[in-house]
Amino acid sequence: MEKKTHLGTKIYSDLKKTILVLLVITFVSVILASSYFAYEKYSNYINEKRIIDKAVSYAEGKKPAEFFRTDLGDIINLQVWDINDSDQHLLVKVNGLSSVFTQSVQDTYVRLNHVAGKACYFAEAEVKDGKVTAFSCDGKIYDRKK
């Protein structure tokens, strides 16, 4: 009878150690995953900030193309600077936020690919007679100022 009690105690002790080891491994895995996620977020932030800072310094002193929209009586302005480099970057500013895009012209609109920033993530420009007449930022359409 004594051996059965000893065996039960041994099984309980082994199970307890196994669970403790699994908990430690889980805790370490969560810490490592969180650290990696934080590093990636910070790295992306630094890279985007560098791109936006370069675009803003290039656009300084240059006149932007201006677009506007009304939203519940408020007039919201959107400004676009053409960087005119090999990748055809555009700097977009709206509500104090900036975004940088690359562009490719297709028929009657300009397709824009998000590179950095939080002003808008999806953008498109409408072209008529070789001139941009409207700009779409995250689905909101801004008309060209006359």
Could you please describe the fold and organization of this structure?
- With 146 residues, the chain is an alpha+beta fold.
- The chain has one domain.
- The protein is 40% helix and 40% strand.
- It contains 1 helix and 8 strands.
- It has an 8-stranded antiparallel beta barrel.
- Keywords: Membrane, Transmembrane, Transmembrane helix.
- The chain crosses the membrane at residues 20-39.
Average of pLDDT: 88
What share of residues is helical? 25-40%
**End-to-end distance:** 97 Å
Strand neighbour order, sheet with most strands = 1-2-3-4-5-6-7-8
| Gross morphology | elongated
Count of helical segments? 1
What's the helix-strand series?
Answer: HEEEEEEEE
Number of strands: 8
Instruction: State the domain count.
Output: 1
**Uncertain spans:** none
**Cα-atom radius of gyration:** 28 Å
Output the structural class: alpha+beta
Strand content: 35-45%
Largest sheet data: 8 strands, antiparallel, barrel
Keywords: Membrane, Transmembrane, Transmembrane helix
Main features:
single chain; 146 residues; alpha+beta; 8 strands
